[in-house]
Design goal:
alpha/beta; Rossmann fold; eight-stranded mixed beta sheet; 12 helices; globular
Length: 299
């Protein structure tokens, strides 16, 4: 999505290789999503439009990490990070409005409004110097949230997102990508998500995530798609002074030169031979690289 690898991997991925069925074989390393997040404690903040935003909190470290999921996902996609990082940090995983356990009583499903959901949680917890971590569409969301939160944010970390922040799409390309989802949201989403995995991905994981994401409310998912395509990543980075780090897979090449043009303080780490859901597919390696990224910020 531009932010699914940006979900706009969605655009980037789908327009070029749409509805590719991954051939999957067993190669287990992931931990299946339990969806109940037994680690930590749950709380609720209220966004600008009074929509309840549910979040999970673990650990009690001085440094706070706020994790934001991608398109049609939820906070459970960070299960493997809550326990690991909760040992040394305070960790918060958010359900954006219309996702997971958060409220659905919203009229406009935009990146800016999702950013306000993150802002609501940070302000309720009275946090400063936070690290915002966003996967896929969550990258655009945390960028928007960072601009709204100002000096409360220490750094922004994008996970398999922002692969080419200068890339633009014509109306024809967007319509070509978007129309199959309008006609058959569940079927198209299921096949689309399968194509985000490498050929050697664990078949159970592929089925689990493709089934989960294709069960999202279509009206919310489609509206979010449309606004994500409008989100000007380069312009938003130009307007921000916050340090930015990427932790991306190599299936969708990261345009490092483009990023350096628009991001004043930038670095990137690449995981090889992994699909879009880095933190679930190979959590041990992912957690190690993310921990290194965070530790380097203080050196």
């Amino acid at each position: 999505m531009k932010t699914f690898s940006t979900i706009v991997i969605l655009s980037q991925f789908v327009i070029t290789s749409f509805l590719v069925n991954a051939s999957v074989t067993a190669q287990p390393e992931y931990s299946p999503l339990t969806k109940d997040l037994p680690t930590g404690r749950q709380d609720t903040a209220y966004s600008f439009d009074n929509v309840p935003i549910v979040y999970q909190k673990a650990g009690d470290g001085k440094q706070v990490l706020v994790f934001v999921h991608g398109w049609s996902c939820d906070k459970s996609y960070w299960e493997n990070q809550l326990e690991y990082f909760g040992k040394d940090y305070t960790v918060i995983a958010i359900d954006l409005a219309g996702h997971g356990e958060s409220g659905m009583n919203r009229k406009e499903w935009t990146i800016g409004n999702y950013g306000k959901d993150v802002k609501a949680v940070v302000e309720k917890e009275n946090l400063d110097d936070v690290i915002l971590i966003g996967h896929s569409m969550g990258g655009a969301v945390v960028l928007s949230a960072a601009q709204q939160l100002g000096d409360k944010v220490k750094v922004l970390i994008g996970i398999d997102t922002f692969h080419d922040i200068e890339q633009k799409y014509t109306d024809e390309q967007i319509n070509e990508f978007y129309s199959p989802f309008e006609k058959d949201f569940k079927g198209t989403t299921k096949e689309f998500v399968k194509g985000m995995f490498p050929e050697n991905a664990d078949s159970n994981l592929v089925v689990m995530i493709s089934s989960d994401m294709s069960s999202a409310p279509p009206e919310i998912a489609l509206a979010s798609f449309k606004d994500l395509f409008k989100f000007d990543e380069a312009k938003n980075f130009d307007e921000s002074n916050i340090p930015v780090r990427f932790l991306n897979g190599n299936d969708y090449p990261t345009n490092v030169e483009s990023a350096k043009k628009h991001i004043k303080d930038f670095d990137v780490k690449i995981m090889k031979d992994v699909g879009h859901f880095l933190m679930i597919e190979r959590p041990v390696e992912f957690n190690k690289l993310l921990a290194e990224t965070i530790e380097e910020l203080d050196n």
